[in-house]
Amino acid sequence: MTPRPPTRTEAALLLAFVTVLSFVTTAVALVVLVVKPGNFLSVLPLLIAFYGVTAILFFTRREAIGGQDPAPPVVMGPADLAKAHGAARRRLATLRAEYAAFESDAVQVLRLPALVDVSVPSTARFVEDLAAALVLDAATPRSVAALREYTSAVDRARRSWVAAREAARRIRDTTLAPGEHAAVRRVLRLLDLAADNDNEAERRLAYTRALDELTKLSGSGTLNVPPAAMATLAARAQGESR
Q1: Cβ neighbours of residue 213 closer than 8 Å, sequence gap 6 or more
Q2: Can you tell me the distance from the alpha carbon of 181 to that of 140, in angstroms, rounded to the nearest whole number?
Q3: How far is CA 167 from CA 67, 172, 173, 202, in A?
Q4: Which of 25, 52, 96, 152 is the most exposed place for a label (fewest CB within 10 A)?
Q5: Closest alpha carbon to 63 in 2, 1, 14, 21
Q6: Which of 180, 188, 190 is nearest to 218 (CA)?
Q7: Domain boundaries along the sequence of the chain
Q8: What is the pLDDT of residues 168-212, one digit of tens each?
Q9: In 3D, which of 122, 212, 146, 217 has the Cα closest to residue 179?
């Protein structure tokens, strides 16, 4: 079995002991040389051996001086675990609500199409991180290690979401062909017209035309329009919501 390396405290005590012993040995050697100068050659091998051992101890233990003593294990009671778990679940719920709101908003999807395109690395990473957090969300953590794994997954999903949005804002619709740009602009104009129109018939007609255009874009593979956005537009075309 591999021996345990010394802790910072143990290494410091060893170094202090060797330092004191070196002073004592040096003092004894000086006394011998003063009292009996002719015995220098008999003392020299002792000094060489001692300082050789001291050097070996120092260089083999010096890395431990910069180490740390083992941290005491974190102990959390059931109430503390439940509180921390609840806070993490609320953060995940907020993230899911933001993502759901985006997927339901056709305007946002058209302005940030990269955020629904999993071929974009940042979007794919977010989708994977969110899925990992949701898997862990299905169980209640019973230990500090399980809680740490869950909170880390939630925080990682949040960071991925922020990074994916920033990347989508930079990309915008630059991956679309000129004809696809024109189709997206038509849909956005129709949605703006519907949002600002108080005439029920005209508003529903604008939503219907926008839905038809989006269906074509989605069917051709130009855009990956989430079903939630299509469902929202279909409901508005039927006059169920605005």
Answers
A1: 183, 186, 187, 190
A2: 47
A3: 40, 8, 12, 36
A4: 52
A5: 14
A6: 180
A7: 8-65
A8: 999 988 877 777 888 899 999 999 999 888 899 999 999 999 999
A9: 217
